[in-house]
Design a protein that fits this description.
This protein has 13 helices and 17 strands. It is α/β, with parallel strands linked by helices and about 425 residues long. The protein has a seven-stranded mixed β-sheet. Strands 1-2-3-15 form a four-stranded mixed β-sheet. The protein binds 4'-deoxy-4'-aminopyridoxal-5'-phosphate. GO terms for molecular function: (S)-3-amino-2-methylpropionate transaminase activity; 4-aminobutyrate:2-oxoglutarate transaminase activity; identical protein binding; pyridoxal phosphate binding. Pathway: Amino-acid degradation; 4-aminobutanoate degradation. Its cofactor is pyridoxal 5'-phosphate. Its EC number is 2.6.1.19, 2.6.1.22.
């Protein structure tokens, strides 16, 4: 039932074969939830450039803001001359950030911002070790890849990686075949065991965790686990870094993913992706007292906090507020997850449906294999290809590549979710009969 790699991936000729193409689509133009291909087809986009174009493709207000800024100044290097869009963006971000995180540093990509957060945590604590959680994805630069455990494909072959990174289990209840509480108890216990056996807590600079594991399989981090990290961070003077690159900016139905853990405040928040609707800009936020522990000049970069990207980010924040997009993500996310759960019963290969807001993951397993669920990457790849064939763009994720993820724009409508669900169901029917 599994179709072969479709022919026609010719657009990659002369582009490095290192780029692994998920679809053969070449985009002509895109609007809202739709990508219009040079093949004349209209694709419903449930990938949003890997969770980036949250206000939809080419939102008119984002386009207008970027165009207007282009005509004023495109690149005002922020350590040479400061520019107004960055000042305005910082003022607008302020009320959205967790209480006390009143200082912001800008870079270009998620990976760079993660690196900035690690650098800051090490400088602030004078400690070497970073504790990460299995399945986490934090980027592709060598340091960010060192912090990543969402699959060996992200680090195999170019070791040695950055030292001082230690990995603790993530409460992946479905994989263990446990209920969530058992998985949380296990993961917190193993963390304490790591502290007892390998990493003295007083040598730990930071915890680094995503509120929802992204590339690692679309697994919401249980609130009680995050709270367990917060308690240990407070006890031992460890910096709690939340990587909100994929889960932040409204995607999960709250403005920040960590807000699903009531009362939790991180020490450093990392954001990128949805921040500017597709323009490259990222940021970390921390209390001024923490930020000030880094020497002036120890962080920076040529392009960080680009003026056009900052203008697009300002427009993005306005659009999210004016169009009530965080609430839309919550409501449409519930519709999406309910629809997926309803169809899961029809296909035994669907082992788990999970997510938060508009981050939905469907985990494919070998049906009836008994014991722990056995990942079925072939099924996930076949479904992903079949959705493309039905003009619905989706992606896979997870260490084994056996999770299909759906990441619609925050502006997605009820009808578009219904259409996406219909196409997804037909794709499953095509693959599994
Ligand atoms: N952190 C998370 C949680 C991510 O999802 C990603 C990108 N998928 C990154 C970091 C890295 O971001 P970038 O690709 O912009 O470097």
């Amino acid at each position: 039932t599994v179709t072969a790699e479709p022919a026609g991936f010719t657009q990659t000729a002369h582009l490095s074969p290192v780029l692994k193409q998920a679809t053969p689509v070449v985009v002509d133009h895109a609007r809202g939830s739709w990508i219009h291909g040079t093949d004349g087809r209209d694709y419903l986009d449930f990938t949003t450039g890997i969770g980036v174009t949250s206000t939809g493709h080419c939102h008119p207000r984002v386009v207008a803001a970027a165009q207007a800024q282009c005509a004023k100044i495109i690149h005002a290097q922020y350590t040479t001359v400061m520019h107004e869009p960055l000042l305005e963006l910082t003022a607008k971000l302020g009320p959205l950030l967790p209480a006390g995180l009143d200082s912001v540093f800008y870079a270009n990509s998620g990976s760079e911002a993660v690196e900035a957060a690690i650098r800051l945590a090490r400088m602030a604590t004078g400690r070497p070790n970073i504790v990460v959680f299995q399945g986490g994805f934090h980027g592709r630069t060598v340091a960010a890849a060192s912090l990543t455990s969402a699959g060996t494909r992200f680090s195999a072959g170019f070791s040695p990686l950055m030292p001082g990174v230690h990995m603790a289990p993530f409460p992946y209840a479905y994989r263990y075949g446990w209920d969530t509480d058992t998985a949380i108890d296990f993961a917190l216990d193993e963390l304490d065991y790591l502290f007892a056996t390998r990493v003295a807590p007083d040598d730990a600079a930071a915890f680094l965790i995503e509120p929802v594991l992204g590339d690692g399989g679309y697994l919401p981090t249980p609130p009680r686990f995050l709270q367990g990290l917060r308690e240990r961070a407070d006890t031992h003077g460890i910096v709690l870094i939340v990587d909100e690159v994929q889960a932040g900016f409204g995607r999960t139905g709250k403005f920040w993913g960590h807000q699903h853990a009531p009362g939790l405040t991180p020490d450093i928040l990392v954001t990128a992706k949805g921040l500017a609707s597709g323009f490259p800009i990222s940021a970390i936020a921390a209390p001024t007292a923490l930020m000030a522990k880094a020497w002036p000049g120890s962080q920076g970069g040529t392009y960080g906090g680009n003026a056009v990207a900052a203008a697009a980010a300002i427009a993005t924040i306005d659009v999210i507020a004016d169009e009530n997009l965080v609430e839309n993500a919550r409501v449409r996310g519930e519709q999406l997850l309910a629809g997926l759960r309803a169809l899961a019963g029809r296909f035994p290969a669907i082992g788990d449906v999970r997510g938060l807001g508009l981050m939905a993951g469907i985990e494919f397993v070998i049906a009836g294999s008994g014991g722990r669920p056995q990942p079925d990457a072939t099924a996930a790849a076949a479904v992903q290809r079949a959705t493309t064939g039905r003009d619905l763009l989706t992606l896979t994720c997870g260490p084994a590549g056996n999770v299909v993820r759906l990441i619609p724009a925050l502006i997605v409508s009820e009808d578009e979710i219904a259409l996406g669900l219909d196409r997804f169901e037909r794709a499953c029917a095509e693959v599994f009969g």
